[in-house]
Amino acid sequence: MIAALKKFLTSHAQAATPEEQTHHLNLAAVSLLLEVVFADETLSDEEAKLLPSMLTEALDLSQSEAEGLVEEATKIQGNSTSLYEFTNEINQQCSIEQKQKLILAMWKLAYADGQLCRYEDQIIRRTAELLYLKHSELIQMRNVAMENK
């Protein structure tokens, strides 16, 4: 049963158009960002404003497209069982630099409300591990985010 499901998912992923692959990748990235936003179980005004603006800049989306992506990712993220679901997609399609930018965005969101909670820190560290980033890269991205607060 599991082998059949894996085969279906693999063949479905390979049949996706480039636009669909980009959309899946964007959903995975936004889902990881939402993990940070909801880690402390509160959505601050700063986080609510920062996330869509990050998406419009990084992904060249309109404000309404960014909000739609956040809404769709919220549904997916709420039904997820682990970070691996999202990091696997990113590992398959992204460079080290792109992964570093994602971790930087996660740190920026974590510090947006002026304080870092331990759950935000844990999620970012776990994500960096799953993205095969070095600890020094993780710390470097954190320092950049702290400097730009």
TrEMBL record:
CDD domains: terB_like_2. Residues 27-143 form the Co-chaperone DjlA N-terminal domain. It comes from the Bacteria. It holds the Pfam family TerB. InterPro entries: DjlA_N, TerB-like. SUPFAM superfamilies: TerB-like. This is TerB family tellurite resistance protein.
